[in-house]
From TrEMBL:
Assembly and binders: Part of the GYS1-GYG1 complex, a heterooctamer composed of a tetramer of GYS1 and 2 dimers of GYG1, where each GYS1 protomer binds to one GYG1 subunit (via GYG1 C-terminus); the GYS1 tetramer may dissociate from GYG1 dimers to continue glycogen polymerization on its own.
Organism field: Oryzias sinensis (Chinese medaka)
Protein name (database record): Glycogen [starch] synthase
Transport as UniProt keyword: no
InterPro entries in alphabetical order: Glycogen_synth
UniProt GO cellular component terms: cytoplasm
Length: 693
C-alpha cells in the first residue's frame, strides 16, 4: 500500500534526473530473491515497493524469481501462461525434467511477472547438488539446516532456469539480480558455468554482522579485528557465510543498502561494494495541503480511545497533553535498541517529574513475542470504556428528549429537573464500574515467557508500572497491529500516523524502514548513526533535527552517553508546544522526495547498467558519476525559527493557553518557500560523498 503525502512539499527536492539511457530492447532482467511473493522480512518490502518502477523501466522484459509457497500464491499471484516464448520453452523443459515451475503475475503495484519454483518438489536432487557444491567450492551444508538446504535447491534451480534461457537461438542480454545469501548460490553457479549473464548481488545485512551484534559485542569498533572464519564457525553458520561471501565475490556488481553496511561488508565479506542502493518507498501524493495533518488528528483520536480504556480508573492525566511514542519491529531486544530506550524512558520520567511537567508520555512497544491470548484485564478495560460511552449516550438521549419537549411548549428548561434519580443511578453505577484496585497492565497479552521476557524484566528493573505518579507510561503490545483486532483495531500505517514520535535507537540496522515510513507520513523519528537510514539522512540534511530526524550517536559514544543523549532528545521533544510540533511535522513530511523510489531507484538503475557494461563490454558502456558532477545535495537548516523550545521566542517551555489554540495557524506555503530558496541544487563539498560514484 503506498504511503501518502501532501502536494505542499513537492518542490523541496533539488533532485536532478540522471541522464543514463541504455537500449534495453534486447535485454531481460531477472530479479531473484527468496522473498518474492513470500513475506519473511524487510526484503519483501524492498522488492514489492520497487516493482512498479522497475516494471515501468523494463516492461515485458522484467521477471521476478522466487519460491513457490502455495498459501501465498493463492492470495497474491494470478497464475497464467508465460508470455515470453523463450521463457515458455524453458519452463516447459524444466517441468518435463522433474521440476515444478509456475508463471504468473504478482498482484501488487506494477503487476510484475513472477517465476515461482517449487523447491520441495526437487528435494530428490538435494544430495547430488550438495555433493556438486562440495566439489565446486568445498562448501558443506549440514543436513539439519533446512534453510541452507532450501538455498541449495533454490540456487541450482535458478541457475538451471537462467542456463536454459541463455541456450535460445538469439539469447537476450540477461541481467540477473540476486538478493541475499539465500539466492546467492544461483549467482555463483552462473559464473562457474560461464553463462552470458550480467550478475548483481545485494546484501541487505550480512549474516555474520547480525549474529555478532546479537551477541552484545562492540561490533563497529572492532570490524577490522574479527577472525571472520572463526566467528562464523563458532556460531555454526560457516556454510551460510561461505555462500554469502562467494556470491559477493563472484558478482559483476556488488551492492548494499547503506554506507554503514558497506563498511561492514568490506570487512566481513572482504569486498567493497561497487555502489550503495538505498531502500525507498512508494510515495503517494495528497491533493489537499493539510490532509496528512488531518489524518494525524483522526488516528490520534483512535489511539486516545484505546488509552481511555486501558487506563480506566487511573485516567488522572490530560489526554490533550499526552504524547504517543512507539518502537516497532522484530523482537531483537538489543539490536533494535529497546534496552537503551527503556533506560532513557526511566530517566525521562525523572526529568518530567522534577520539572513538574504536565505532559504525559505513553510509549508503545510493538514487537511480536510468544503469547497465548489477550490479557483479560486489557480486554475488560475496553469493555468498560464502551459501557461508559453507551451510558453517556443513554443519558444524553433522555436529557435531549426532555429538553425538546420543554422547548416545544415555549419554556426554558428547569436544569434541576432535566436529570432525575434514575439518570443519576445509571451514572453512579457506571462510575463504580470504573473503580480499579490494580495498576493498568504493562502488557496487553498473556506472555508465554513472562519471567524471562527482556522487555518485562527491564520494566521491573526500572520500576515503570504505569502508576499515577509516573509521567511515562508503557504499553507492550507483543503482536503486529491489525485493523481486525478487538483490542486496538488499527493497521500499522494508521497507528504510526496517530503517534507523535517514532523511536528506533538500533545498534544494528542496515537500513531501517520504520523511521523511513515515519518520515513519509510526517512523523518525527529518532534513529542512530549505526542505521542506514540515519547515515543517509545525515548525508542529505544539514540539520536533521530541525526536520524532525533525530540522529543518536551510538558509534562514537558509550552506552550511558548515548542513553543521556536519547533522554535529552525525548525531553526536548516533550517541551515543544502543539504549534511547534505541527511545524515540525510539516518539515518532516517535506523530506518525502528523498525516500521515494522515483529518486532512489536511480541507484538500482546504475547498478544494472554497470553490470551490463562489465558482462558485455562490446555492447554497453557505463560511465560512472564523478564526485565533481555528483547529484548529491543537502537540505539546509529551515529558514524560519526552528522548533526547538530552547531557541524559540519563549523564555520558558511552559506556553500560554492562547498558543495551544487550534485556530492559530502558520503560513505553510511561506515556510516551504523559505526552505525551497535555500536548497542547494548541487553540492560539491568534500564531506558530502555522493551515494554512487
Amino acid at each position: 500500500m503506498p504511503l501518502a503525502r501532501s502536494l505542499s512539499v513537492t518542490s523541496l527536492s533539488g533532485l536532478e534526473e540522471w541522464d543514463e539511457e541504455f537500449e534495453l530492447e534486447d535485454a531481460v532482467l531477472f530479479e531473484i530473491a527468496w522473498e518474492v511473493a513470500n513475506k519473511v522480512g524487510g526484503i519483501y518490502t524492498v522488492i514489492q515497493t520497487k516493482a512498479r518502477l522497475t516494471a515501468e523501466e523494463w516492461g515485458e522484459n522484467y521477471f521476478l524469481v522466487g519460491p513457490y509457497v502455495e498459501s501465498n500464491v493463492r492470495t497474491q499471484v494470478e497464475l497464467i501462461e508465460p508470455t515470453n516464448p523463450v521463457l515458455k520453452r524453458t519452463i516447459d523443459k524444466m517441468n518435463s525434467s522433474g521440476c515444478k515451475v509456475y508463471f504468473g503475475r504478482w498482484l501488487i503495484e506494477g503487476s510484475p511477472y513472477v517465476v515461482l519454483i517449487d523447491v520441495g518438489f526437487t528435494a530428490w536432487s538435494l544430495d547430488r547438488w550438495k555433493s556438486e557444491l562440495w566439489d565446486l567450492g568445498a562448501i558443506g551444508v549440514p543436513w539439519f539446516d533446512r534453510e541452507a538446504n532450501d538455498a541449495v535447491l533454490f540456487g541450482f534451480l535458478t541457475a538451471w532456469l537462467l542456463g536454459e534461457v541463455t541456450q535460445s537461438e538469439e539469447p537476450p542480454h540477461i541481467v540477473a539480480h540476486f538478493h541475499e545469501w539465500l539466492a546467492g548460490l544461483g549467482l555463483v553457479l552462473c559464473r562457474k558455468r560461464q553463462l552470458p549473464v550480467a550478475t548483481i548481488f545485494t546484501t541487505h545485512a550480512t549474516l555474520l554482522g547480525r549474529y555478532l551484534c546479537a551477541g552484545s559485542v562492540d561490533f563497529y569498533n572492532n570490524l577490522s579485528k574479527f577472525n571472520v572464519d572463526k566467528e562464523a564457525g563458532d556460531r555454526q553458520i560457516y556454510h551460510r557465510y561461505c555462500l554469502e561471501r562467494a556470491a559477493a565475490h563472484c558478482a559483476h556488481v556488488f551492492t548494499t543498502v547503506s554506507q554503514i553496511t558497506a563498511i561492514e561488508a568490506e570487512h566481513l565479506l572482504k569486498r567493497k561494494p561497487d555502489i550503495v542502493t538505498p531502500n525507498g518507498l512508494n510515495v503517494k501524493k495528497f491533493s489537499a495541503m493539510h490532509e496528512f495533518q488531518n489524518l494525524h488528528a483522526q488516528s490520534k483520536s483512535r489511539i486516545q480511545e484505546f488509552v481511555r480504556g486501558h487506563f480506566y480508573g487511573h485516567l488522572d492525566f490530560n489526554l490533550d497533553k499526552c504524547l504517543f511514542l512507539f518502537i516497532a519491529g522484530r523482537y531483537e531486544f538489543s539490536n533494535k535498541g529497546a534496552d537503551i530506550f527503556l533506560e532513557a524512558l526511566a530517566r525521562l520520567n525523572y526529568l518530567l517529574r522534577v520539572n513538574h511537567s504536565d505532559v504525559t508520555v505513553i510509549t508503545f512497544f510493538i514487537m511480536p513475542a510468544r503469547t497465548n491470548n489477550f490479557n483479560v484485564e486489557t480486554l475488560k478495560g475496553q469493555a468498560v470504556r464502551k459501557q461508559l460511552w453507551d451510558t453517556a449516550h443513554t443519558v444524553k438521549e433522555r436529557f435531549g428528549k426532555k429538553l425538546y419537549e420543554s422547548l416545544l411548549v415555549g419554556q426554558l428548561p428547569d436544569v434541576a429537573k432535566m436529570l432525575d434519580k434514575e439518570d443519576f443511578t445509571i451514572m453512579k453505577r457506571a462510575i463504580f464500574a470504573t473503580q480499579r484496585q490494580s495498576q493498568p497492565p504493562i502488557c496487553t497479552h498473556n506472555m508465554l515467557d513472562d519471567s524471562s521476557d527482556p522487555i518485562l524484566n527491564s520494566v521491573r528493573r526500572i520500576g515503570l508500572f504505569n502508576s499515577s505518579a509516573d509521567r511515562v507510561k508503557i504499553i507492550f503490545h507483543p503482536e503486529f497491529l491489525s485493523s481486525t483486532s478487538p483490542l486496538l483495531p488499527m493497521d500499522y500505517e494508521e497507528f504510526v500516523r496517530g503517534c507523535h514520535l517514532g523511536v528506533f535507537p538500533s545498534y544494528y540496522e542496515p537500513w531501517g524502514y520504520t523511521p523511513a515510513e515515519c518520515t513519509v507520513m510526517g512523523i518525527p523519528s529518532i534513529s542512530t548513526n549505526l542505521s542506514g537510514f540515519g547515515c543517509f539522512m545525515e548525508e542529505h540534511i544539514a540539520d536533521p533535527s530541525a526536520y524532525g530526524i533525530y540522529i543518536l550517536d551510538r558509534r562514537y559514544k558509550g552506552v550511558d552517553e548515548s542513553c543521556n543523549q536519547l533522554t535529552s532528545f525525548l525531553f526536548q521533544f516533550c517541551k515543544q508546544s502543539r504549534r511547534q510540533r505541527i511545524i515540525q511535522r510539516n518539515r518532516t513530511e517535506r523530506l518525502s522526495d528523498l525516500l521515494d523510489w522515483r529518486y532512489l531507484g536511480r541507484y538500482y538503475i546504475a547498478a544494472r547498467h554497470m553490470a551490463l557494461a562489465k558482462a558485455f563490454p562490446d555492447t554497453f558502456i557505463y560511465e560512472p558519476h564523478e564526485p565533481s558532477s555528483a547529484t548529491g545535495f543537502r537540505y539546509p537548516r529551515p529558514a524560519s525559527v526552528p522548533p526547538s523550545p530552547s531557541l524559540s521566542r519563549h523564555s520558558s517551555p511552559h506556553h500560554s493557553e492562547a498558543e495551544e489554540d487550534e485556530d492559530e495557524r502558520y503560513d505553510e506555503d511561506l515556510e516551504a518557500e523559505k526552505d525551497r530558496v535555500n536548497i542547494r541544487q548541487k553540492c560539491h563539498h568534500k564531506n558530502i560523498p555522493p551515494c554512487c560514484h
